[in-house]
């Protein structure tokens, strides 16, 4: 997930993915990191893809400054994950990942970490997001992915590819241009 803090000379910071078991402890940790860098901020823009978009929306409720959120193919209907098996997850992930580009150890940890995230999300229940000024949805199917039930959507844009490859080199240049356009208007 990426956070942009406006009012601080457009200082940007990135949060590398760190697995955590408890959603609240992870969110509070991110809140503290963002708050440390945004004491004089007038607005924060949170950007996330997939699970990162869900986190961006959730973190917005914990901050004491207005937020814009850009969610990239991030849904919020996770109740079906309870029926999803580890075996299916590994199979689907292996089909999505090019076998010649990822070594076995990296592939293994991607399977483990992404499974942990899916388990955490299976109990997630979105709520009304009141601290989001602008909520931009980028999705591979052009829908708002259900976010309209929880927040006012500023814009919805269709992006190229499928969920598994939407951030690949093939689609990333166009996606980056779209995100810059949204940020210029914020």
Automatic annotation (TrEMBL):
InterPro entries per record: AB_hydrolase_fold
Please, which domain of life does this record's source organism belong to?
Eukaryota
The name this protein carries in UniProt is Uncharacterized protein
Write the lineage as a comma-separated list.
Answer: Eukaryota, Metazoa, Ecdysozoa, Nematoda, Chromadorea
Source organism of the structure = Strongylus vulgaris
């Amino acid at each position: 997930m990426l956070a942009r803090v406006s009012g601080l000379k457009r200082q940007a910071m990135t949060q590398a993915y760190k697995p955590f078991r408890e959603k609240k402890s992870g969110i509070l940790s991110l809140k503290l990191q963002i708050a440390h860098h945004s004491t004089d901020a007038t607005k924060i823009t949170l950007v996330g893809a997939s699970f990162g978009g869900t986190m961006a929306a959730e973190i917005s409720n914990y901050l004491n400054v207005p937020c814009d959120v850009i969610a990239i193919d991030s849904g919020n209907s996770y109740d079906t994950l309870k029926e999803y098996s580890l075996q299916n997850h590994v199979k689907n992930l292996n089909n999505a990942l090019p076998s010649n580009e990822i070594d076995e150890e990296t592939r293994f940890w991607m399977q483990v970490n992404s499974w942990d995230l899916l388990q955490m999300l299976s109990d997630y229940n979105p709520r009304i997001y009141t601290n989001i000024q602008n909520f931009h949805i980028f999705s591979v199917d052009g829908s708002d992915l259900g976010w309209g039930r929880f927040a006012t959507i500023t814009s919805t844009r269709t992006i190229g590819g499928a969920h598994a490859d939407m951030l690949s080199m093939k689609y990333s240049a166009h996606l980056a241009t779209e995100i810059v356009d949204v940020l210029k208007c914020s």
